[in-house]
């Protein structure tokens, strides 16, 4: 009994004092699954840094020795053969692997290029860092090769999970909160644009605004007229001030053209797409993603502020001139449905795959502490094969997902057009 206690105490002492012989630092890339993966590595670090876990490993090691000895003796008595001692090598090998690979701790940096987020987590066992980091490096290399032929708006590394279409969809419900500006534009369209459309010799037409224009600001500027009056609203005169269309456009144009007028709407848009608008880096990533996605899907290049402005003005024009015409309203509604279908397809075709992969990555990491306890037992081989199998499967999934992503994005762009 004393020998068993001495062996247990010695093994525990080795585990407690085998500090960081060499600290390994590696990166782990995840595409759209930052939070589950980051939390999983964090929990892994906490579990393996707990002294009680090392004591539990000692208990499993003693149990492995006991099970191996009992199995060997039982086999020797029942078969009449010599006592088999092969299990001793497994127990010793498992203990050595645990001490050499899971006791030294290093740092792993989880990075999500889609959301442009990263966090370095310390106290992760070197063995886990090595296996996860090396296989993830292989996955990144293959993903980069796949992305070489992709356009900026469809690259897996920047738009996994249909994130670009998420931002584009969020534009629909992200409007500036300047009610004075919105009301003034409505009155300008009602009084000035309507008059210009009916004026003989005008160059402004509904057909141009509906089909060919690329900037509604140019169309609205055509409605200036010093002889026609409208009402302009602002914080100084909330009840409105009567002025000519020329004067009203002189007030509206600088506000509509200023990018600062859409700061709040842009932050709201990015927040709905799960970016952090308070983080300048993520906000910039969100804006670039929107511009690249729109360029990829429609071949047009706009800044996020311009897209929001175009949507606001187009909604006002639609409400005034198109929704009362059954034929035109049907055509525009059909166009909206097709566009929404393209956006929805881009989201649903690929949204859940990165999330599911991230959750399975977290599950794979979460089972490692238990599998590690089986190392100093006769189940050493099976434990190692399960550990390696999880990460090989996730690597294969990541590469396959990148290939499927390209096809899904191309099909979504086709539907969007």
Keywords:
417 residues; mainly alpha; three-stranded mixed sheet; two-stranded antiparallel sheet; 18 helices; elongated; disordered N terminus
Describe the structure.
The protein is elongated. 69% of the residues lie in helices and 7% in strands. With 417 residues, it is mainly α. It contains 18 helices and 5 strands. A hairpin with a 4-residue loop joins β2 and β3.
Taken as a percent bin, the fraction of beta residues is: 5-15%
> Which overall shape is indicated by the principal axes computed on the Cα atoms?
elongated
The residue fraction in helices comes out at: 55-70%
Q: Tell how many strands the DSSP assignment holds.
A: 5
Question: Main β-sheet, in a few words?
Answer: 3 strands, mixed
Q: Please tally the helical runs, counting DSSP H or I stretches of 4 or more residues.
A: 18
- How far apart the termini lie comes to 78 Å
Q: Which regions are unreliable across 5 or more consecutive residues at pLDDT < 50?
A: 1-21
Rounded mean pLDDT score: 81
Rounded Rg: 32 Å
Q: Give the strand order, joined by hyphens, for the main sheet.
A: 1-2-3
Run of helices and strands:
HEHHHEEHHHHHHEEHHHHHHHH
**Pairing-aware structural class of the strands and helices?**
mainly alpha
Explain briefly what this protein structure is.
This protein has 18 helices and five strands. With 417 residues, it is mainly alpha-helical.
